[in-house]
Amino acid sequence: MKINWRTVLNHPIIKIVLGAAICFLLFIVAQNFIIKPFLLYLIPSEEIAKTIANYISSIVLLLSYFFLFRTYEQRKVPELSLKHLPKEFFGGLFFGFLVISLIILLLYLLGYYSILNISNYQYFLKPLSILVGAALIEEIFFRGILYRVLEEWKGTFIALFITAFLFELPHTFNENATFLSFLLGVVFGLSHGLMFTYTKRIWLPFAFHLGWNLAQPFYGSNLSGLEDMGLVINAKFEGPKIFIGSNYGIEDSIFSLLLLGIICLFFLYLSIKNGKIIGRNKTFKNTIKL
Most buried of 55, 109, 120, 160 (most Cβ within 10 A)? Predict the structure, then answer.
């Protein structure tokens, strides 16, 4: 029996596997065997060299995704459209940082948060570049590849729940993970899937993700159970864990879960209102509208 390789390569599962493998292989090879060695040789400061390397590697990942799927799927790759980049990136960054800031404000008003001192601003060098790379890697894979392909194949709602669960799964192995942090991660994945559904671009979920992650160590919290991400503010969290979070960090607070739930409902409403929801086995033109 003759195998139709074009049909095989265009199967959604094969597309997800090949897309992820090629993009991240190019990213890893470029970062560890070309960019970092070159910059460490060129720049005396290891901190600055690795910071620059992380940013350049992030650009390599974006270019790998763009050229791979432009060739593979023979399309323009609108999810990386630069036309909407400034508005969605800076808006998303501010939005993500603002949500965590609101939680900190609530804790302060309740007497559960106090500032001890300002640490240092080294956080804005290598640690920030790591956060940029981590958020971009997760959004390229979970939204740009996995969610996008699943949504086109099985529809928005199936793609939402599959991707949200798979997004949180690796985080369950983080130190200090709890049941509440698991729920938070699933809702976080749902919110980002809906942001992608509404905009059809990667910039808003990526920037919100970055702002969310940036704000937690900024205010002195652990980040997803990690204690070594650096701090700007040394702070004291003292109160019921349901409010201040566990050792997993502030995102393990019930306030985080509630605010993300509201964000999910907001982007679900916008997606339905603007006809962005895709039905199962239907094209982008066959959508659900209010």
Answer: 160
